[in-house]
Structures are given as structure tokens and as C-alpha cells.
Amino acid sequence: MSSPETAATREITFGKAINEALAEELRRDERVFVIGEDVAEAGTPFKVLSGLVDEFGTDRVIDSPISEAGITGLCVGAAMTGMRPVVDIMFGDFLTLVMDQLVNQAAKAHYMSGGSLSVPLVLRTTLGATRRSAAQHSQSLQAWVSHMPGLKVVMPSTPADAKGLLKTAIRDDNPVVFIEDKLHYPLVGEVPEGEYTIPLGVASIKRAGDDVTIVATSSMVQASLEAAELLAAGGISAEVIDPRTTSPLDHEMIIRSVQKTGRSVVVDEGHRSYGVTAEIAAMIAEEAFYHLDAPVRRLGARDVPIPFSPPLEDVTVPTPEAIAATVSELVAHSPAVAAGSGA
Amino acid sequence: MSSPETAATREITFGKAINEALAEELRRDERVFVIGEDVAEAGTPFKVLSGLVDEFGTDRVIDSPISEAGITGLCVGAAMTGMRPVVDIMFGDFLTLVMDQLVNQAAKAHYMSGGSLSVPLVLRTTLGATRRSAAQHSQSLQAWVSHMPGLKVVMPSTPADAKGLLKTAIRDDNPVVFIEDKLHYPLVGEVPEGEYTIPLGVASIKRAGDDVTIVATSSMVQASLEAAELLAAGGISAEVIDPRTTSPLDHEMIIRSVQKTGRSVVVDEGHRSYGVTAEIAAMIAEEAFYHLDAPVRRLGARDVPIPFSPPLEDVTVPTPEAIAATVSELVAHSPAVAAGSGA
Amino acid sequence: MAMSDEAAIVPVDPAGLDPWLQRYREMVTIRMFEERVNELYRSGKMPGLAHLYIGEEAVAVGVCSGLKQDDLITSTHRGHGHCLAKGADIGRMYAELLGKEAGYCHGKGGSMHIADHANGNLGANAIVGGSAGIATGAAFSAKHRGSGQVVACFFGDGALGQGLLYEVMNMASLWTLPVIYVCENNLYNEYTHYLEVTAGDVLARPRAFGIEAVEVDGQDVRAVREATDRLVQRARGGDGPAFLLCNTYRYHGHHVGDIDRGYYRSVEEEQEWRGQRDPIAVLGGWLSEQGIAGEAELQRHNDDVRRLVENGLAFALDAPFPEVSEVDRHVFA
Amino acid sequence: MAMSDEAAIVPVDPAGLDPWLQRYREMVTIRMFEERVNELYRSGKMPGLAHLYIGEEAVAVGVCSGLKQDDLITSTHRGHGHCLAKGADIGRMYAELLGKEAGYCHGKGGSMHIADHANGNLGANAIVGGSAGIATGAAFSAKHRGSGQVVACFFGDGALGQGLLYEVMNMASLWTLPVIYVCENNLYNEYTHYLEVTAGDVLARPRAFGIEAVEVDGQDVRAVREATDRLVQRARGGDGPAFLLCNTYRYHGHHVGDIDRGYYRSVEEEQEWRGQRDPIAVLGGWLSEQGIAGEAELQRHNDDVRRLVENGLAFALDAPFPEVSEVDRHVFA
Ligand SMILES: Cc1ncc(C[n+]2csc(CCOP(=O)(O)OP(=O)(O)O)c2C)c(N)n1
Ligand SMILES: Cc1ncc(C[n+]2csc(CCOP(=O)(O)OP(=O)(O)O)c2C)c(N)n1
Ligand SMILES: [Mg+2]
Ligand SMILES: [Mg+2]
Fold it and tell me: How far away, in angstroms, is C193 Cα from ligand 3 center?
């Protein structure tokens, strides 16, 4: 993290942190612009961009037609020719519509051109269920974009991370997919005063612990911290690591932790099968093989389209209780409880 | 496998096996039709559908505009209303264009409607590099579709499997993504005479062995069999398992093998990070944890857009030599060589 | 809501009624159904959000009344009107909106995904323009099977931004498919006026693909129906697709939570549409003028519809949620 | 190839030549460049496939000659002509086609992805229609930056099937962006005649979005150039986008491996285009008529261009492949 000018912090919401990051970068660099559906006067349906159009005008905060592929493509071209677009894709579920422009164009242009073109574009979108929004407005599709060379993928879990990472993403010369949990927007957290950025590819230890390493992304960080509280009551000390970016993924910090704890649970809100948890768990199982006292467990969204009905939806996403139960079971069944590395 | 009427076989190419499966199902069920770009007179650029239009006419083998999203959407609607479409997406790279219709519509309609709608659709597409086709015609995107509940994903590696699995896919009441290796089309193999089908979700042991389990998909099965030959020369006995479908995935057969061998290498032509290998390796590492003598290794396409230049492209995809080297290293570094289960 | 008078109401048998009086009842049903939806939301009884169709009733009723039961429709996020007009049961619809087992989708779909296969509704869609392919494919299927069915594809002005629409209109035209693209132009894409995001001439778009295109007053159910009849007849007769542009207006917010709308549209505009161009008032006035039904008669129908709506709602409120184990069902057929 | 005569040729200095003679040389360059590509393929010296532009030279040359060097283009899988016409070096292009380090993309792109940023070529694209967004965004950027640049977006008749095109034409029109959509209608989408898959009226499509659209004989470089000049002037002057439909023909197969074409088009058709409407012959004839250059003079230019092409090819054949370690470079900027 580039040092904030002052160590002072203040409490703002996650939404406000995003808004500040955009405002600061729009102010700092006239090449930056924001485009998307209802981003200007409406400030998006989530109101996250409120006020930006007043300061920066409709030339730089641009309401688009409902043309996700088109605006993403337009941003690729703008990025190649000297602009730094931030494209707003309202729901992560609509990534389905932009994959060609994002994956076949944005992600590959630099490589295919042998380095002569570059695409400094940020695609902001959202993830997450439990809003009673049903199957087409609840997905968490980070696994798709994390799979693609040429894309960076950011999944902040706190207001401070969101602000620092978004500023870095906008300054990055590559296409960056920036995924926000819709439920995070109203959550409040400490954010440094003044200018700061956070590098992509560096995980963050959100809670230190000795018995198990919970690797959790975005929405699942808070759930894991709550799980850690529950576990602490039962005498289990959980370390919670937030990779913050799934690509690049900070192998080192995760492995160091697992070497210490000997156990790991990976939690992400995407579907479990072929999800982000698979890569992280496989990586841990491979790189920390000789330190593991127990199999790496994974928790993700249930492998079903997200249902509308509340009692059904509520069982589709990992809860603090489910995470804690998985950890407890893991600790109970692996011999070296609290014994540190099993190497 | 439903018993073929006779145990007799004959040698045909992979392409011919696909062609036969389509012809038989077109003949058997008038609800089946094929649609795609240049599928009729041209029989696709790969010539795989040659002759079908002559027998079935342009009403059932339909040349479409270059509208991947549109034809996929059209097939979803046709499938919901009593037809059994087979849509041809020439290159797997163009899945980028159909993800909304495939994932938000086809995969979810049955669930969202509480079972009242169903979408018996087969989407045939291709995978694979090393054809000097560069970054937008060389991808292997099975990880994306395997991640989606509601989709089945088939990746045959032999003519016999291709035929039996495609027939099953067409008869399945769900959307099935059927992925063919473009380099397989001219390859010849034994195919049963007469009618047969192969169930989805059942893996196939392509070579039996004791020291290591190589789990390989599609294009990588042949490479792994060649690797097994190389290894045999060095005294290492490799079992090669082809899951045949990544979704559903046959956990049982894979785990049974790893329990026997104590080691595993997973190989798939998609990019390594967040690829199909991650799920399979994580699953093995979790479910066979107490039987593993060594970490599960993964080989996938290098995490770069596929380059055009031959010497560069050649190092992007796992080769028999690379697979053999990975296995050899694994065996050399894990204590219980040829000792079977380490439990 | 004059609930206390309910017991006094004599149920009406809609069969045998004048067809326009039936249309009147259908529009009133949608209106009353949704007024209750709004209340359910505000009182925290309905999970999630809903996009109200109030103000646009003449479009769904005008189009769907011109279809046979086995004709098909595809619907949108703003789909309650389409679903009711195509014959859905009020109680099962409310049940779906409340996530109950008795709902059309066993609670799995909710407001944005109601499908009623038996009545030919292939489903609401929460992807703007997302059903254009499905509708076109259903028409392809109808033609191929020789079923004689016609398909109506509902979508909003916002869907004009989705490339998929042009891809499938091209195919519908090429293959003369029996599909009618019904564009409900309610002037807004969410919170943005359609003219800010829609270039050129809307009708010229389908016409460029060789598709017959007409514009009607979407507040006048008789006009919508008349146009529909002609286009359905063409489609059924093998003359191919059409595009029906219906100019209409939503009275409420983009969704039930969109209360402060001043930043994107004026109260005057809202009042003008509500006051001058209300589809129920327009048809009610005509029914009176024609001597088909006077005020008292219309009131009797209003009351009768209210009774049906309340009954349906009561059924749904009482109905149980699905068992949790249902979550794993219907992933695969 | 009369290679033995080469030594005798006196190089021509193209500067100062009549502009149409320059266009002639540019078209001949594309033709000869690609004839060699075809031979490289047939003799197994070129990796992969290539889509030859031969027959369509007047489009690329007519359009690109009307652009400034810092104006931008986006190109297609059939992109050699665009790339050369926008000023690329023959040797570096061949090097790219052969996967050599000296290629425009260090061999990473190949025929389908050549980009030449310095000359304003934002890249060929192997996704049909895939560059429509990029071109529109480049025009957005030009307008926003006030650079005065104009963007030409090349695509084939097949790209009319891609929804993306309509999404971005809408935005180009709304925001009066300086982009010219150049549709190269060579009658075929791969192996299917465009009329089998294209409904309605092509020009009516952009017009429906409020975009100025014109059709020209794509075999007549002067006609293409004249139309381009007008549309570029409009675009540069702030009058927004245009659509230029160029009717043209590819002489060879869809790609170099497409040899037996009888099942989708007749030899007569091929002969008619080659014989009657060859763009080089058409311009050559006009140059003679006008007394600008007679046959001998044109031959001198042919010979000179051949020398340049052969030199470029020799350079590329000799050039080394990239180091294998290059495979990991350029994934990220
Ligand atoms: C592809 C897609 N993009 C964005 C959205 C978010 N969204 C939901 S409704 C809506 C506006 C739709 O406007 P219109 O089509 O005119 O329908 P209306 O709401 O006016 O009935 C938007 C942008 C979506 N659901 N799908
Ligand atoms: C999205 C997409 N679909 C299909 C293809 C395969 N393909 C390559 S070229 C081509 C035909 C393109 O026709 P047209 O646009 O007319 O260009 P032409 O080849 O005639 O120059 C097709 C279908 C592709 N590259 N991209
Ligand atoms: Mg609208
Ligand atoms: Mg063409």
C-alpha cells in the first residue's frame, strides 16, 4: 500500500469508498471516464456513483444504452487510443453478454499485438445472492474471468481495500475486472484519509490465527470473520486471509499461513464446482502438501441456479455457521490440533 | 453403455463418428435439427457434417447467419417448444458470444420455471490449440461451462465415445455442451457396429496402471496415453482415466484409482489457472487425501493467450513429454513408489 | 379498499360478457393485482423487488386477447400483466411472487421469472431483451412442427439496445417465422429517457430487416387489439414476423422501490398520462359511450375483480414455502 | 515470377507520382503480396491459414488513401489489404505471417491479428464483427480528446449478423462519433451466399440508426475514394458516423485452403468478376485512357512493386523466430 499521507482514518461506506476512488481518479486524470446504464443522474441503481455527474459532467459520466457488449467494446477501443474507461456492468450476471469483448478483445490485444496495443480498462461489476433477486441477478462469476490470461480480477471486501484497489486498477495498464458485492455498499469501515493505493496481487490477513487458514473472497470475508468469532468461542483460532485479487493470486501469503496452521478452508460465493475455490484449494493442496494435516475443504454457492424463494435461497450461500462447522469438523478429524505445522 | 447390437466394430474417424451420431438421431427423431454457420452444403469448415443436408434437407440442416447468440437463443426457444436442436458453434472461442443464452437462459430455464420448461439442446463446439490459429481460435473454455449448474459438459476423446456420448446428449432433456477437439476429426478408432449410447457422468479407464493416475480430458487423453508409454519404458505404470464428462464428474472412478495409485496428475487443455484441472485436482486432494503419497499435479495450457508463432505455440499446450516428466518427478519425489495406497 | 362490502358482491360470470367488457376486467385485474403487489412490498411481506406494469395494461391485454391459448408469449421483468393476460391464475401468481410452493415455479422463479407453460407463457426474463431468441425459436419450432402457433415477444424500449434482437429479427424475416415483436415503449430505460439512448427511428429498425412494423397507441386496448389481429393473421397465414410498437407509460417507479422519480421525470408528465390516457378509463369511457356498460356495471366488475384478487392473495399468503430440500430439484430435467 | 529480370529494374520513387498511380501501386502491392502468401501456404512455408484479399484491393486502398496517417482503422481476418493500404511495411508483415520476431506483433498475432499501431491500424480481428466496438470506441476517444482523427471500421457482409454492430452503430449515431463503417460485401459469409442469411435491405440498417449510408462499386477505387472523401469530411467536421457499402469479390477461396468452391459458387461467376471488374485492370485502363500512364509505365510499376515484395519476403524468410521465452511476455502491459 502506498502510504497514506496521514495515518488518520474515517468511517465511510463501501459505496462511498468506490465513489471516492472514482472521483479522485476522474479528477486526477482527464483520460478517465465512466460509462454504463443509468450511471449519471441516477448514479446507478445502487446509487454508488451519486454526485459524480455533477462534478464531472455527462461527458465523463455517461449514460449508455442497455448494450453491455457494445459499451465494453467501445471501452476497449477508447482504452487502446489513450483513454482510461471505467465501464459499469450493473449485475455480474451480465458478464455473459460481454465475454467476447472482454476476453477475446480486451484481454488479448496486448499479447496479440506483441505489446504494441494496450487496454487500460476497468470493468466494474457486482456479485452475490441473498437479495431475493433470483437466478439471473445473483451470480458470482469471478471464476470465468479469473481463468483468462490478460485479465486481472479484483474482489475487495472492505471499504479501505475497495478504494485503494480501485484506484490502482484505474491506473493499471491492463484490463481489470473489479467485482463488488452488492450487499457491501452500505457497510461502513475505516478508510485512510488522503491519497493511497493498494497493489494488485497482495493478499491481506484479515484476522490472525493458528489452527486453520480460512481463505475467503469478497462477500465471504465477513462471513469468515464471523465464523472465526464462533470458532474462537470453541477454542479454535482461525486465520482469515483475503486474497483481494484472484488474478494475480498471492500464493505466498496463503501458503505461508497454511504452513503454519496445517489446515485450510476456502470460501467464495461462486458456485462450488469449477469455482474460484477449486484453484485456491488445488494450489494449497499442491504447494503446502507436506504441511497439511487435513484435506482442504471448499465452500461455495450451492451448485444450483439461485432460487427466488427465501428459504431456498438462504441455503445456497455459505453462512458463518456453515463455515464454522466445516472448520470444526476439519479440526476434530485431523490429529494435530493446534500443533502448528505438520511437516 | 447400452449394449451395441453386436460386439463387432469398425474403424472410422472421429469426424465420421460425430456425423453418424447426428445422422442416426436425425433419422430417429424428427424433432432433432442441426443449425449453424456453413453446416449445410459446406458441412462445416471441418467437413464433419458432410452429407447430412443431402439426406435431411435444408429444413433440418440449416445454414445460419453469423449470429452465435441469436442461433443459440433460437435453439433455446425451439427446445422449450418440442424440438431437439443441435447448434454448431464453430470454434469454442465463440462461446464468449453465447454465454447469456447458454447460461442465463438454457441452463436456468428448467430450474427457474420449477420444472415446467425444459431445454433439450446440444451445443456442439470445439477446443484446442497447436493449429497456428492464434489467440481467438485456439481456446479451450470448458471450465466456464463446467462451472454452471444446469449444463452438462461432454468432452469425448475417441470416435467410439464421441458417437455414443453425442447420441446420449441429443436424447438428454437438458442443455448439453459437447466439446470436440478439432485435431481429433481425422483420427481413426474402433467404433461399435449398430446402435449404442454411452451414459453421461461415467468416466472411462483408457489404460490401466498402478503407480499414478493421470486424469486427462479430450485432446489430453491421447497425449497422456503417449506419456504412459514413455513412462512404461522407465518402469512407471500409469493409469489413464478420461472423465468423458466434466459435468457430471465421475468422482468415484477417479478416487478409486487414486486410492490405488496414491498419486495423480490432471491434464486438460484449458488454461491452467482456474481451469478444469483445478476442480479435479482439488476434488482428488480432498477426497483421496489420506491415500495421496504426493501432491496432485496439474497441467493445462500455459496462462497466456495462445500465440501464433509456432515455436511459441508449441510450448503452450501439455505434450506427452511434459506429462511424462511431471509424473516421473512426482514418482521420484514421493516415497512409496509402486507401493500402492499409502493409507 | 372497501373490503367490508365484499360479502355483498355477487360474483360475475365472465363467460358470455361482451368481449370489450372482458378486456376491461382483464385490465382491472392487472391493475388491482399490482396495487396489492406494491402494498405487499411496502409492508415488507414480499421478498425482493417487483416491476409494476400499472399504466401499461392495454398492451398485454390487447395483444394476449388476440392470441389463442396455445399461442405463445415471452415476457419481461415487468411481466405480471403479460402473465395474467395470457390466462394465469391470480393465486398461483401471488404464490410465486411470495416464493411459495404453490407458485407457478414452486417459488423458484419469483416475479422476474414467472412462466406458465400451460397457458403458453414461456417465461418472464430478467435479462433485458433476453427472450428475443426464445420467442424467435418458439416461432421457428411452431413453423417446423406445423402447429399453427403464433408467438408474441414482449420487451421494453430498453431492449432496443441489445444486439440479440437484431440477430433474431434477421432470422425471423429470412425464415418468415410467426413471431410478433411487441415493443412496449414506456419512454424509459430504468431511469434514462429512451431518446437519450436510442438513435434514429425505432420502426425503421425492424423494417430494415424486412419486417412489417406498425405503431399504436398503447393506452388504447382496442387499437392494440386491432393491430394485433392483423399481425397475428399475417403470421398465422405464413406471411412472417411483425413488429408492434406500443407507446405506453408506467405509472409507478421502475420497480417498487423507485419512489423519488423527480430527477428523471416530472410529476406533470406522470399526471398527464394517468389523467388523460389511462387505459382502463379510456376503455371504460368507450364502453359507456357505446352503451355496453355504464358506471355502475363497471363498478360491479371492479368489485368482482377485487374479490378475485383478494381471494388469490389470501390463498398465496396462507400457502406454505417449499421444503428446503426442494432447492436441489429441477437443476436437471 | 520473372525473378531473373529483377536486377535490371530501376526502382521507382513513389513520391511525386500521380496520386492515382500511387493507388495503382498500392493495389498491385496487395495483389502481389498475397499471391506470395498463397504460394507460401501451398509450399508449406507459412504456418496456419490466411484469408486472401485479392480482388478486393480497391476497397482498402480507396478508403485508406482517404485517411491521414494518424487516422485509425480496425481490420478483419481478411486484413492484409487494410494493413498494407494503411502504410505497413511489407517485410514486417511477411515476418508476422511467418511467426517471426521481426513481425509487427513479434509473431504472436499472425495473419489474423496484425496490428500496426504506428500507422493507425488497431488490429485485424478473428472474431467476425469483433472490432466494431473497438472502432467505435476509438472514434469516441478521438472526439473526446479532440484529436480530429477519423476511424474506418472494416468488416465483411458476414458481420451484419453480429448484434454488436447494431449496438455500437446506435451509440455512434447518438454521440455523432467520427467512425465510418466499411462493409466489404464480397457476396459470401465463408461458404454461404449473403442473401441466404441477410434479410431486408443492408443500407436500411445503418439508416434506421440515423447513420448516413452509401453504396459504391467496390471494384472502382476512384468511386470508393470519392465516397470516402465525402464521409471522412463529414466525420471530421463533426457530422458523425457513416456506413459505406462496398460491393466487391474475393477471387480466391475463403482461405488459402478453400480450393474446390464449386458447391457454393460457379466458375462463371468468378471469371466474370476477375475478367470484367478487376480493380487493378479498371484503374489501369483509366490511367491509360487519361494518358497518366501507359502499359509500359504500369508494367514498370508492377516490376518495381514485385521487387519490393520479393525483398520483403526474403527479409521475412531469413528472419529468426522469437526466443521461446517470449511466450510469457506481453500477457500484461
Ligand atoms: C441485459 C440487462 N442489462 C441491464 C439490466 C438491468 N435492467 C433491468 S430493467 C432495465 C431497464 C429496462 O428498460 P425497458 O427495456 O425499457 O423496460 P421497462 O423497465 O421500461 O419496462 C435495466 C437496465 C438487465 N436486467 N439486463
Ligand atoms: C464470431 C465469429 N463467428 C464465426 C467465425 C468463423 N468465420 C471466420 S470468417 C467467416 C465468414 C466471414 O464472412 P464475412 O464477414 O463476409 O467476411 P469475408 O470472409 O467474406 O471477408 C466466419 C463465419 C468467426 N471468425 N467469428
Ligand atoms: Mg422502458
Ligand atoms: Mg463476405
Answer: 8
